[in-house]
Amino acid sequence: MNLDVTQKPFIVFWELTRACMLACKHCRAKAQKKRHPDELTTEECFNVIEQLKRFGKPYPLLIITGGDPLLREDLFEIIEYAKDFRVAIAFSGTKLANKSKLKKLKDAGVARIAISIDGSNAEIHDGFRGVKGTFEMSMEILKNALELGIPIQMNTTVTNHNIHDLPNIMKLAIQSKVILWDVFFIVPTGRAKAEMMPSPQQFEDILNWLYDVSKKTPLNVKSSAATHLRRIELMRERNEELQLGELYFKLKAKLDKICSEIECKNEEKRIVAGGHGRSLTNGIRRMLGITDGRGMFFISHIGEVYPSGFLPIVAGNVRNESLKEIYLKSKIFQDLKNPNNLKGKCGLCEYRFICGGSRARAYAIRGDYLEEEPCCIYKPKNLVKN
Predict the structure, then answer these.
(1) Residue 282 has what pLDDT?
(2) Which residues contact 322 (CB under 8 A, 6 or more apart)?
(3) Which residues make Cβ contacts (< 8 Å) with residue 275, sequence separation at least 6?
(4) DSSP H/E element including 53
């Protein structure tokens, strides 16, 4: 698939509402229980879809998120209006996502649903999500979606509270037959705090372990806000030396143990980290070098446009500017589309065009979205030479 991501997005995240019944510790949106009175109306949402069409075919992947989009009564109308797009939806693990609603989402044309599982048991997951019973409800949603034949994606946020539980969450993902495990590395924005982040070495260890998971299990694995996995994919394929810490070997031992206990058979497959921009036959596509503001953007519940939901700098608003104009002409998007603009070691790194680090994390920690990724231990070859 040939796509110039400087001219059109590959993927768009759309926050239909910030209303949510949960109180997650990491919530970038600081979600509230009531809907914002200035949310985009149904007609304005239809207009957003028309604006996205102006980028031309192939249309971007459209990810509907929140808050909890199930709190919008017009959700199914909006999804049906976007019938020309491949639409996925991420919602909260609450009673709103009952089997009837899931069936309605499938009938409306949703290609995939995403459920967050941040712990392998209620104590860990519910403690993180802020509401008791969320784990049990989320597992029920996974079961119902499987029965209805809806493709499932499991999302997991990596923080200090659950890094040692990741193998058990992986086991749940395998048993739930998810088509993709999306592992998100926390960005300190909204309610999330910097002290919740793993260390740079732990980032490297977990990402290397995720590469192992991709190769040894049936799971397809994607990292979010941790594009270093693309570098690791290429380095591992070339048998290059990596700097591995104690956490990696602990996680690997747990992976080996779990795979000796459950069905972990896996034909040799290509991982989908994105180092090659590979495409898989099951509908999971990857493009080369997609990151904050480069091949992707985020639309808020009130129409604001950001490079990502975790990089809170407004580039424009769909109510008074076209999405195409914002994506093509706003300064922040122009800055982010060219990896040669990056500063520090990211600007020297030979992997900057496929990785480039998390621009959102650079902004959150260093106050500059072009600064180097704070949680990467890799030393670029150009840096070593100098």
Answers:
(1) 45
(2) 51, 54
(3) 229, 230, 231, 233, 234, 237, 354
(4) helix 42-53
